[in-house]
């Protein structure tokens, strides 16, 4: 019997979710210049504005993951995007710096459960041989969002002003919610899936052979797991680089290279579009090279390490004097940051032994990533304020990527929640 591929529509919906998520985030970055002019904001004030989204976002990540584990990805994803879409629209109605900070903080609350909801959805829908592909398609949305959003928001701001740009981009989310609620269920519950494909998903979505008596799937077990800390710290090192570009790339290109808002959108789109294509391709290759045994053994860590090492070329930007070389280095760094991000998400899913704790684990993973990430806009603001240039910020980001490559190779050698190495666990 032929096995269909209708499950790919689920991956496509998650990709679209990522796109909308990051269009709503980058809108503020593209609008930074007119917003700063209207409210008379310094680079430090802009840094805090860029970072404000992450303050409550980080606090709500683990609770959001726990709720996703209990209620499932369908309802949590719909509720999350509805809340953040409202806050995105209200950003356009801000009457000053304080009110804009509040809407961005509330936007973070809305987006916090997203990764937990997505990871739980993929655990339900993706066979282990497609786990990396499914996650890379979702994370590719986080790079396609800026690629589309930089040009879209730039054009909207030029045509109708920065305030209406937030209203329009916020309204897009409600279209996604309507489609999601009508169409999305678990594979066991939907009628549009063929029996052969449904059986493949259900039979192949778990690959663990670890003795459950040696796994502590409780919250305390996750917190005390060396591998959990390893993937979280790795996530932090790559997320710093991601959020540095997400918050400051348009402003960097405008102030350091004299580009217009519209030209900035074009160059940003090129960098993020390449990241989308390559990250999906590398993740698909990794899926094909990894057997079930290698997945259980956490061998995806090597691909994470290599991707982070390549992304560390961001540290070379200060010695690049040509705009085209700068854009090339930015593109390479963004591309392999995106690849490492998708692979590290998938590595975490590989290491979590109990599907009932996937959302919680991903909440903790994203806390690690965004604890570093929320610092990137602030640190960059201070560096630019006191040095007058972006050079040191790129070096800091490159060093963190090198550190992360070491962490992932040394701290992720056991299943999350396990107290003994893989080989001994598999023999137990």
Report on this structure.
The chain has 428 residues and is mainly alpha-helical. The protein has a single domain (8-427), classed as Growth Hormone, Chain: A (Up-down Bundle), CATH 1.20.1250. 78% of the residues lie in helices and 0% in strands. The chain is built from 19 helices and no strands. Helix 1 runs parallel beside helix 7 and helix 12 (261-289) packs parallel to helix 15 (323-351). It is globular and about 55 Å long.
Strand pairing plus helix content: what structural class?
A: mainly alpha
Rg over alpha carbons? 21 Å
Number of alpha- plus pi-helical segments: 19
CATH class: Mainly Alpha
Sheet-strand content, in percent, reads under 5%
Uncertain segments of ≥5 residues (pLDDT<50)? 209-213, 419-428
Overall 3D geometry? globular
Number of folding domains?
A: 1
Mean pLDDT: 83
Major sheet description: none
What percent of residues adopt helix (DSSP H or I)?
A: over 70%
**How many β-strands, per DSSP?**
0
* CATH homologous superfamily descriptor: MFS general substrate transporter like domains
Distance between the termini: 37 Å
Order of SSEs, N→C? HHHHHHHHHHHHHHHHHHH
Could you say what the CATH architecture is? Up-down Bundle
CATH topology: Growth Hormone, Chain: A
